[in-house]
Amino acid sequence: MLAWFFVTVWGSGYLATKAGLQYAPPFTFLVLRFATGLLLLAPLVLWWHRREPLRWPATRLEWRTSSPPAC
Fold first, then answer.
1. Per-residue DSSP letters for 1-39?
2. Is the torsion defined by CA of 6, 7, 8, 10 positive or negative?
3. Measuring CA to CA, how many Å separate 47 from each of 29, 34, 36, 69, 70?
4. Which residues lie below 8 Å from residue 63, measured CB to CB, with a gap of 6+?
5. Tell me: the pLDDT tens digits for 19-46?
6. Is 69 helix (H, G, I), strand (E, B) or coil?
7. For FRET with 26, which of 14, 41, 58, 59 sits at 20 to 30 Å CA-CA?
8. CA-CA distance, 15 to 3, in Å (whole number)?
């Protein structure tokens, strides 16, 4: 069910962009989309932080496993 929701939201992005660019310049539309995403994700981040506070890696091994591999 979550996969269908993701596909619907991802696929509707094209339609929203196509319709939105008729009424707003590209940079303004980009800022509005970013702000909307921020407003939708902020409650989730706050809830997650209360459940399990984030912390920096403490050891060298944790840093290696949490960073992307070097090319």
1. -HHHHHHHHHHHHHHHHHHHTTTS-HHHHHHHHHHHHHH
2. positive
3. 28, 20, 18, 30, 33
4. 57
5. 888 888 888 888 888 898 899 889 988 8
6. coil
7. 41
8. 19
Q: Residues 1-18, buried b or exposed e (16+ Cβ, 10 A)?
A: eeeeeeeeeeeeeeeeee
Give the pLDDT mean for 47-70: 80
Amino acid at 18: K
Q: Which residue has the tokens 């929701």?
A: 5
With residue 48 as reference, give the H or E element that holds it. Answer: helix 26-51
The answer to whether residues 41 and 33 touch, using CB atoms and an 8 Å cutoff, is: no
Locate 24 and state its tokens.
């707003």
What whole-number percentage of the chain has pLDDT above 90? 6
